[in-house]
Amino acid sequence: MDKMTKRVDSWGEVGIDTEASPGNGEYYVKCYVNGHDAVGFDTEEEALLELDFIIQSLKSIQNMDGNTQLRFG
User: Which is nearest to 15 in space by CA: 32, 23, 26?
Assistant: First the structure.
């Protein structure tokens, strides 16, 4: 079960993965725009940095190609 701790506008969320295996990081990232999910981050800050990287990458792609439509979920 996931427990969201931070939501980044309509882009995505970061939270605690309550079912994380011992030894793996307990934080997850979920991006609403491209469906990217990742787990195993040791800190909330590390997970937020991953989500920020994804957001900046998607914005950069959209700026390069004005026809690109980002899907918001």
Answer: 26
What stretch of H or E contains 7?
Answer: strand 2-8
**Beta bridge pairs of residue 7:** 13
- The pTM assigned to this predicted structure is 0.77
Kindly list the domain boundaries of the chain, sorted by start residue: 2-62
Taking 90 as the threshold, does the pLDDT of residue 48 lie above it? yes
Cβ–Cβ under 8 Å, residues 23 and 10: no
**Helix intervals (H) in 1-73:** 44-64
Cα torsion angle, 8, 12, 55, 45, sign: positive
